[in-house]
Write a structure and sequence with these properties.
It is built from five helices and seven strands; from the N terminus they run βαααβββαβαββ. It is of the alpha+beta class.
Length: about 160
């Protein structure tokens, strides 16, 4: 498997992978209808397309030659901090090192920043445990993960890179 920059040709596949991953992760928390609504808003092809051209950002996928097994999106938010907006691994590929490979690449995208920040849904114990194993610390919480008004409570985590 290898990491590469996402392209416009990947967006439908990424959108489908995100839908699959979100339903597997969040249906039991929010219900299938709410997850479908959030996925349509946040992971549709038009929403993903905007990320391809965002300044000071990286959008990558993990590709094993047969399918895209994961994706990540990070942007630099100020002179010392980058924000990991998304890191998702297809359910069938979880536990195989895909998330760790994506995270290592995201941490290296902006060599001048000293820390990386993320928000993770507070009920997603598996993701929180993953980030804690990778050196992230809980620094705050927010009632609106991702976008203002989402109503999804989240833990804000940071990792000092250097």
């Amino acid at each position: 498997m290898w990491l590469r920059t996402a392209s416009q040709d990947d967006l439908e596949t990424i959108s489908a992978m995100l839908s699959e991953t979100w339903h597997a992760t969040y249906d039991s928390i929010y219900g299938k209808e709410k997850v479908a609504e959030l996925t349509e808003a946040w992971h549709s092809v038009p929403a993903l397309k905007q990320r391809l051209s965002k300044p000071r950002s990286e959008f990558i996928v993990c590709d094993d030659g047969a399918e895209i097994t994961g994706m990540a999106f990070v942007s630099q938010i100020d002179s010392e901090t980058s924000m990991l907006h998304q890191l998702y691994v297809r359910p069938s590929a979880q536990g195989q090192g895909v998330g760790k490979k994506l995270l290592i690449e995201m941490e290296a995208c902006f060599p001048d920043v000293r820390k990386i920040r993320l928000e993770v849904e507070e009920a997603n114990d598996r993701a929180i445990a993953f980030y804690e194993r990778e050196g992230f610390k809980r620094v705050d919480t927010t009632p609106d993960c991702g976008v203002k008004g989402s109503g999804i409570p989240a833990v804000i985590m940071e990792k000092v890179i250097w």
